[in-house]
Specification:
The chain is mainly beta and 277 residues long. It is built from two helices and 20 strands. It has two domains: 90 residues, Pectate Lyase C-like (3 Solenoid); 135 residues, Pectate Lyase C-like, CATH 2.160.20.120. The protein has an 18-stranded mixed beta sheet that branches. Strands 7-8 form a two-stranded antiparallel ribbon.
């Protein structure tokens, strides 16, 4: 019977040899570029493990794909019901190719897709993909994230913004002032919205990570988890419902407390209670 030491050495040999073979194959592959025209869409859903960039271009409803030539045919861009679906089979699982070797490794071929459009009403980001959206305009934009990928929204003109985070990936919101922001946080990903001025904000926080926001006039905050809501500006009015261990914290230096949770009728500091007749 073959000894355990010999089996380990043999597995190491085949693993090293296969890794060298894969490295040579990937090194010989060529980066290619493909342009695809699209039907009209105002919604986008990104799946898989790809990097997508959305911005206006010289020709909207057009996408440019950058990927390895060996996987270009495995990249899918389709439009159904005014929704652009993006996905790619760009992962290579070594365990599937080496069933008799105890090896767990995965290779992800980089895929970058540039999508040209200037209007969106809905964004869905899933799995391990990253999405960067810039310079779009919309009276109302709804965002849903469920995976571990990063969402970055920058320099866009949006009147009403609604974001629901069910995943663990970070969300970065920057840009021009928004009239209304609604945040529903279920997952544990960080949210950085301190560089997005908001007139009125409503936050439902059930996660365990921090949410950073910049409300100007009004904040309605409901905390059910361990995560904090960090304020980078002091709104004129604030409502706090705290049922978890998280808190609403003012991060402005040398600023007095926002509210007194021990008060009979909590109010903002600096605001006088109305006198009763």
């Amino acid at each position: 019977m073959e000894s355990a030491g010999n089996i380990i050495q043999r597995n190491k040999f085949w693993t090293t040899l296969f890794s060298i073979f894969l490295g040579v194959s990937w090194a010989q592959a060529d980066l290619t570029k493909k342009t695809q025209l699209l039907f009209y869409f105002d919604k986008i859903e990104v799946n898989g493990a790809i990097n997508v960039f959305v911005q206006p271009g010289d020709r909207n409803e057009e996408a440019t794909i950058f990927a390895d030539s060996s996987i270009m045919e495995n990249i899918s861009l389709t439009v159904r019901d005014r929704t652009l679906y993006l996905d790619a089979n760009n992962t290579y699982d070594l365990a599937r190719r080496l069933p008799f070797i105890k090896l767990s490794a995965e290779r992800i071929f980089p895929v970058e897709i540039l999508v040209n459009t200037d209007k969106l009403s809905e964004i869905r980001l899933n799995e391990r993909s990253n999405l960067t959206v810039s310079d779009i305009r919309s009276p109302r934009l709804s965002v849903f994230t469920t995976g571990t990928g990063r969402l970055h929204l920058d320099n866009s003109s949006i009147d009403n913004l609604s974001v629901r985070q069910d995943g663990n990936g970070p969300i970065i919101l920057k840009g021009k002032e928004v009239s209304s922001l609604e945040l529903i946080v279920i997952g544990d990903g960080l949210i950085f919205a301190q560089d997005l001025p908001v007139d009125r904000a409503r936050v439902l926080h059930r996660g365990n990570a921090n949410v950073e926001i910049n409300p100007l006039s009004f904040l309605d905050s409901r905390i059910f988890g361990q995560g904090n809501i960090l304020l980078h500006s002091k709104p004129e009015n604030i409502v706090v419902s705290q049922k978890g261990t998280g808190k609403v914290i003012d991060v402005i230096p040398d600023s007095p407390p926002l509210y007194d949770m021990n008060a009979t009728r909590p109010v903002l500091f600096g605001k006088e209670r109305p006198k009763r007749n």
